[in-house]
């Protein structure tokens, strides 16, 4: 009798997932609109405009963090984006080869105080508000950020 | 980023002729706003009808545009599109600005 060996890393319960888009482009803020455009084009027709809006804002903030912090002043900075359609919604995985997040964790984002008239510091707050789930992992020299958007 | 200015008796309307105010364009937007508001007084209405997208850098640039006003000047916003409206609402920046449905409504754009 032959024994079937299943791979340890099999994605269980995720068999319905379909990769809508996978790309890798320079991690530069001038490239962010191009990445957002490609993601939006891939979702057009199958994802409603409200969800596409959530994805655009969240992904813009996450990509800008990579361009402005992880890969700032690196000679060769790149970011890979994979968009998966799942039974429960969308999963977007971003990979970059830049510096890790401080303390290897997502910063705690406090709700902005509008009276402060702050000119920044809204990025992680917006990500936390708009994504259903956010997961950060450092693997060897990679940052991996997974954003989940439930329908 | 192109900004065009229309002066009406009630306000100075600044139209943003771009679809995005974002990380690559925020600094230029802020500098253009600085030179536009370097003289004059009264209400400046930023017409965002053509702006489909804003990120936190763009939001910061709009806030900076208000902070760099001279005494006697105020900045109001008009025609927020869905994503722009969402960013302002989530960050509660909508509570800081007077927001009009369109820049040209009576009493705002000088038609009233």
TrEMBL record, chain B:
Instruction: Tell me where in this chain the STAS domain is found.
Output: 21-93
- Highest taxon of the lineage: Bacteria
* Listed PROSITE patterns: STAS
Q: Which GO terms describe its molecular function?
A: anti-sigma factor antagonist activity
Mind telling me which InterPro entries this protein's record contains? Answer: Anti-sigma_ant (IPR003658), STAS_dom (IPR002645), STAS_dom_sf (IPR036513)
What single Pfam family name could you report for this chain, choosing any that match?
STAS
The record's family statement is: Belongs to the anti-sigma-factor antagonist family.
Q: What is this protein called?
A: Anti-sigma factor antagonist
């Amino acid at each position: 009798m032959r024994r079937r060996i299943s791979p340890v890393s099999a994605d269980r319960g995720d068999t319905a997932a379909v990769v809508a888009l996978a790309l890798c482009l320079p991690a530069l803020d001038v490239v962010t609109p191009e990445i957002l455009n490609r993601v939006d084009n891939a979702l057009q027709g199958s994802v409603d405009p409200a969800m596409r809006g959530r994805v655009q804002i969240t992904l813009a903030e996450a990509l800008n963090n990579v361009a402005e912090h992880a890969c700032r002043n690196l000679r060769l900075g790149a970011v890979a984006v994979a968009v998966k359609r799942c039974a429960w919604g969308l999963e977007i995985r971003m990979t970059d080869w830049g510096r890790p997040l401080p303390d290897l964790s997502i910063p705690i984002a406090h709700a902005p105080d509008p009276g402060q008239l702050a000119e920044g510091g809204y990025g992680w707050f917006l990500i936390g508000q708009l994504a259903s789930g956010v997961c950060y992992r450092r693997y060897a020299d990679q940052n991996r950020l997974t954003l989940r958007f439930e329908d | 980023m192109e900004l065009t200015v229309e002066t009406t008796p009630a306000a100075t309307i600044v139209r943003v002729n771009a679809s995005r105010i974002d990380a690559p364009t925020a600094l230029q937007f802020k500098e253009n706003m600085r030179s536009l508001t370097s003289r004059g007084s009264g209400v400046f209405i930023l017409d965002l009808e053509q702006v489909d997208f804003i990120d936190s850098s763009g939001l910061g640039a709009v806030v900076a545009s208000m902070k760099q006003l001279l005494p006697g000047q105020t900045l109001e916003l008009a025609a927020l599109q869905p994503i722009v409206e969402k960013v302002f609402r989530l960050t509660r920046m909508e509570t800081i600005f007077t927001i009009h449905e369109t820049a040209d409504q009576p009493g705002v754009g000088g038609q009233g």
